[in-house]
Design a protein that fits this description.
about 475 residues, Rossmann fold, globular, six-stranded parallel sheet, single chain, about 40% helix
Amino acid sequence: MTLSVLSVASEAFPLVKTGGLADVVGALPDALAPHGVATTTLIPGYPAVGKAVKGTKVVRRWRDLLGVEARLLGARLGEHPLLVLDAPALFARAGGLYDQTDDWHRFAALSRAAADVAEGFDVLHAHDWQAALAPAYLRYCGTAQRRTASVMTVHNIAFQGQFGAEIFAGLDLPDEAYAIDGVEYYGGVGFLKAGLEAADAITTVSPTYAAEIREPRFGMGLEGLIDTRRDRVHGIVNGIDPAVWNPETDAALPSRFTARALGRRKANKRAVEKMFGLDRDDGPLFTVISRLTWQKGMDVLVTCLDELVAGGARLALLGSGDAHLEAALLAAAARYPGRIAVRIGYDEPLSHLLQGGADAILIPSRFEPCGLTQLYGLAYGCVPVVARTGGLADTVIDANEAALAAGVATGFQHGEASHHSLGHAIRRAIAAYARPDLWCAIQRNGMRADFSWSESGRRYADLYKSLTGTA
């Protein structure tokens, strides 16, 4: 028996992407197909999506979808069905995907459309706060003709979709939904909170993060709710798509390579040096590919740059975020020309080159639900130097004495996001790099690990089957 799943999210690679959410949503259909799950993905009709998707057909119309006219367009996402919510009043606009003044309206409409369509599927799978009202709409507005199970995946609990109570009237929900076990949250409306309350199952993107968000330090105010539903919470590590992230076939690399041919990486390192205007030498080259935010520990990284350069290393950074962090990093680049280089923004092919050419990637996050950049690093022989939290702790094996003796180390972990802790991890990595045989062994261990979607896809499929009674 094939299970049908409607996966609803605010972005999906390769159509539209601001972060790892898009990579996950784009990869899930292929990951689930071998396990008897047929996935249809629903995303908003942003201008970029309209340009990328061809041969659409109208499969449904709404004259009044939370006050706007809308159509549902059928298309394809690779080999799998795609639904695009064409609501020009909400999504046909310039600017970023988020932080619009009417985000509550835009993503409530996406969720309501998902719930309306979901009753033709076995499972509704909602991703993050932008889709989190979909399980609530199923709960309060669904019909009894067919029972659709629902799954709520938390990619980052820090982003919750909290709005004032005044928006409730525009959600087209019954009065009973505005309750402590519904959409009400501290006197307002909480999108993510509503999805966590209504969903039949909750998943997070790593086992460690599933445990962490039951604590006040990581739960961001929702730890009590998560704890009361702990029997419904499942931690499933994200995977990466080997069709997109594979150093043996990656067109973004000047020199493709394998774990058996690591020497070919040097040409990529030279390309990074040239592109970033860095000195050409054989010392370690670190990279950062990240949002420049407090969560990502970028403020701590700034304090360690003098020490990194003093240790003979260099840094090529790609990212954007908080203005004061961008300024601090650019100032460091000006202070150390040829040793530190910063590019503000995001460039997908360049991120591939950095993974395939840099020696190590720094990820000093204060919390990290799963993280994908460390998985890309492992696959590309770009040794991760990571904080011991969330999915970083689950996916990187620290190069301590025991792991090195056993031949299983894949990177370097450090404790809290602090100057002392990160600085010590950087020094450990620099020392290991000075021992070429040891460094190559760490690289090869990471490259030989399996972080594809195979096991994660099976776990999601097993969860769907348990919810629908088909296990």
